[in-house]
Write a structure and sequence with these properties.
Elements (H helix, E strand, L loop, with lengths): L4 E3 L5 E3 L2 E2 H8 L3 E5 H23 L2 E6 L6 H9 L3 E4 L2 H10 L6 E3 L6 H9 L4 E4 L2 H14 L3 E8 L2 E4 L2 E4 L9 E2 L12 H11 L3 E7 L10 H21 L5 E3 L17 H19 L5 E4 L3 H4 L3 E13 L19 E6 L8 H5 L6 E2 L8 E7 L8 E9 L7 E5 L19 E6 L2 E6 L4 H6 L5
Parallel strand pairs: 4-22, 5-6, 5-15, 6-7, 7-8, 8-9, 9-12, 9-13, 13-14, 14-15, 17-19
Antiparallel strand pairs: 1-2, 2-3, 4-16, 10-11, 16-17, 16-21, 18-21, 19-20, 22-23
Helix pairs in contact: 2-9, 3-4, 5-6, 6-7, 8-9
The protein binds ligand LLP.
Length: 460
């Protein structure tokens, strides 16, 4: 839950003293309710944890908030005010950054297929770093910058062969994925160089490129520090080798994002300070062993900053209960861990405002928000209103058995990759985002209207 969430004496859920029914009256549902206070606090504490851990190694850490998780003008302003930088992944995200007025020097651009237009925009905005993803792109960035008489500040994204997911990570020597430059020796290269090394050699050969350093990102929703630590070691080995072989200094190393959050009670991510300390210990000892001075470290957390700051507010509509002993009913259906009776609680949104359950089998929880209830808990499945049986918001959750149409449900942990991944499936309007701070609410992204939905249809 976001900070500042509580129940008032009447049993209604409040955020910083504002009741959910007030929020619904003012802004409608579905609605993303984001605590600005919490966002700022998480941004600061994440940044503090890493800065403390790395202070004696490289003077601190540059924290780039990963805008892909949730981005709008207000968020860019908060990020900047809290001393963080911004990671973007498209021209559209750069446009938001530009509109918010963040200095280009504090912005990074990612992407495995940047268009020439996006590269020009990055150079126009004098971005602090363009994270180059392939040899092909390196040449394009070099040529575009040279034509403009510019210098592009470049990080090279490498794939260290470490893949992490929540509790486990796997390390492989070879890479078969669309992102990044492989560190494995390339048998088709005459000198047997890896794509990563070819890119270093090519980058330092271009006058229009200023090679700042190396980058990697090993995955998302990761709980344990081991994968980050292993990737850091691999990149430091490579960085040291390149510095000797090519007589260069690579002053920066970005270890990406991916820090996990708790979506349900079974998730227990490590505190940021613990992860930061573990990563710092590895960087410290590896640099000492290699006899190099540590590069400036940066990271790119998205979910860990915004994920838990937000809940989605839905209104309950249709209810139905499926009983396995009902005449003609069949056990099974969508989701195999079927327990009966199962009550289906339909809400006024669904996979269009949160596709993560459909895409990743992601688990969420839900609570009755508009009132408290002493009714017995009943196993429920919260579903959306889309024309797909997989349109599930919360697979299994106990809700009071008196939940009825018109009640409000709150689903926590929807700050990251929900609004960002939202769609207009079935011509549903995308919900707005309201930010709450100091006991007042402010719309930071307005919800779509039917007019918005019809606007781009040429009507011919
Ligand atoms: N840096 C890079 C290069 C990335 O690709 C990503 C996420 C991040 C940073 C931020 O990762 P975070 O700290 O937020 O985990 N849609 C998926 C997640 C996709 C992540 C893509 N890249 C989901 O909803 O789980």
């Amino acid at each position: 839950w976001a900070g500042g969430v509580a129940r008032n004496d009447a049993g209604e859920l409040t955020i910083e003293g504002l009741t959910v029914s007030e929020l619904q009256r003012e802004y409608g549902t579905p609605l993303f309710v984001l605590s600005e206070t919490d966002f700022r606090a998480r941004a600061r504490s994440f940044s503090d944890a890493f800065n403390d851990a790395f202070a004696d190694i490289c003077g601190g850490v540059d924290v780039y908030y990963a805008g892909k998780s949730f981005l709008c003008t207000s968020v860019v302003r908060w990020v900047e005010e809290e001393g963080l930088r911004l990671d973007t992944a498209s021209g559209g995200e750069l446009a938001v950054a530009a509109r918010a007025g963040i200095p280009g020097a504090d912005v990074a651009l990612h992407g495995n297929n940047k268009s020439d237009g996006e590269i020009h925009r990055a150079l126009d905005m004098q971005l602090g770093r363009i994270v180059v993803d392939s040899l092909d792109e390196l040449e394009r960035v070099a040529a575009i910058a040279a034509n403009r008489g510019d210098t592009a500040k470049v990080m090279l994204r490498l794939t260290p062969g470490v893949h992490a997911h929540t509790h486990e990570f796997i390390a492989t020597a070879h890479e078969d994925q669309k992102f990044g430059l492989s560190m494995a020796p390339d048998s088709t290269d005459q000198a047997g160089l890896s794509a990563a090394e070819e890119a270093v050699a090519a980058a330092i050969g271009h006058e229009s490129i200023e090679l700042l350093g190396l980058h990697c990102h090993i995955g998302s929703q990761i709980f344990e520090p081991d994968g980050f630590a292993l990737a850091a070691e691999k990149l430091l080995d490579f960085l040291a080798a390149m510095q000797v072989k090519y007589s260069i200094v690579l002053p920066e190393l970005d270890l990406g994002g991916g820090y996990g959050i708790a979506y349900t009670a079974v998730d227990s991510p490590r505190p940021a300070a613990e992860i930061a300390q573990a990563m710092a210990a590895v960087v410290r000892s590896k640099c000492a062993a290699l006899g190099i001075s540590a590069p400036r470290i940066s990271i790119e957390p998205g979910r860990a900053i915004v994920g838990s700051t937000t809940f989605t507010l839905y209104e309950v509509g249709t209810l139905k209960t499926v009983r396995v002993d009902a005449p003609g009913s069949e056990a099974g259906g969508v989701g195999n861990d079927v327990t009966y009776p199962r009550r289906y609680v339909s809400v006024d949104g669904g996979m269009s405002d949160n596709p993560r359950p459909v895409l990743y089998d992601a688990d969420y929880s839900a609570i009755l928000a508009s009132r408290s209830s002493d009714a017995a808990p009943q196993l429920s499945r919260v579903v959306g209103k889309h024309c797909e049986s997989g349109d599930i918001v919360v697979r299994d959750v106990y809700l009071p058995e008196d939940v009825a149409a018109g009640d409000l449900l709150a689903v926590p942990g929807t700050g990251a990759y929900c609004w960002a991944l939202s769609s207009n499936y079935n011509y549903l309007a995308r919900p707005g985002v309201v930010a709450v701070s100091d006991g007042s609410a402010r719309l930071i992204v307005r919800g779509e209207t039917e007019e918005d939905l019809l606007n781009r249809d040429m009507g011919v």
